[in-house]
Amino acid sequence: QVQLVESGGGLVQPGGSLRLSCAASGTIRSVSGMGWYRQAPGKERELVATFTRDGTTNFGDSVKGRFTISRDSAKNTVYLQMNSLRPEDTAVYYCNGYIKDYSSPYYSIYWGQGTQVTVSS
C-alpha cells in the first residue's frame, strides 16, 4: 500500500508565502513523478506544478513565476513553495504521484487527502 500525506496548508494574507510538503510512504518500488494540483469550490481540479520522471517541471499558467516545486527523491517527498499568494490561490491542494509498488508491475496514480490553503486578509 502507498500513502501520500500533505502538510503545510493554512491561512495566509495576500502577498504572503506558504510551503507545502508531500511525503509518499509504503511499499514503494519506484516513483515516476510527483506533483501538485488544486481545486477551488465550484471549479475543476487544475494543475499547479509537477515533476516528471526525468526531472522536467510543469507549472499551471496562473502560478508561473510565483510558485516553485522541489523534491527530495531519497525521501519520496515533494515540496511546493508558494510566494506572492493571491486570494484566487485559495483552494484545497492535492499531491499526486505516479508510483509503482511491490504488488504490481505497473505505475498507478495515488492522491493525498488534500490540504486547505486560504489566502485572505
Can you characterise this structure?
- 31% of the residues are buried.
- It is elongated and about 45 Å long.
- The chain has 121 residues and is mainly beta.
- It is 0% helix and 59% strand.
- The strands form two sheets. Strands 2, 4, 5, 6, 9, 10 and 11 form a seven-stranded mixed beta sheet that branches. Strands 1-3-8-7 form a four-stranded antiparallel beta sheet, with no helix packed on it.
- The termini are far apart.
- The protein has no helices and eleven strands.
Task: Spell out the key features of this protein.
single chain, 121 residues, mainly beta
Walk me through the topology.
Blueprint: E1 2-7, E2 10-12, E3 18-26, E4 28-39, E5 46-51, E6 57-59, E7 67-72, E8 77-82, E9 91-101, E10 108-111, E11 115-119
Parallel strand pairs: 2-11
Antiparallel strand pairs: 1-3, 3-8, 4-5, 4-9, 5-6, 7-8, 9-10, 9-11
Q: Helix count?
A: 0
Number of strands: 11
Helix content: under 10%
Task: Calculate the terminal CA-CA distance, rounded to whole Å.
Answer: 40 Å
Structural class of the helices, strands and pairings? mainly beta
Which oligomerization state do the chains in this entry correspond to? single chain
Question: What gross morphology would you assign?
Answer: elongated
Indicate the low-confidence ranges by residue numbers.
Answer: none
Please tell me how large the radius of gyration is: 14 Å
- Can you summarize the main beta sheet? 7 strands, mixed
Order of helices and strands: EEEEEEEEEEE
Q: How confident overall, as mean pLDDT? A: 95
Beta-strand percentage range: over 45%
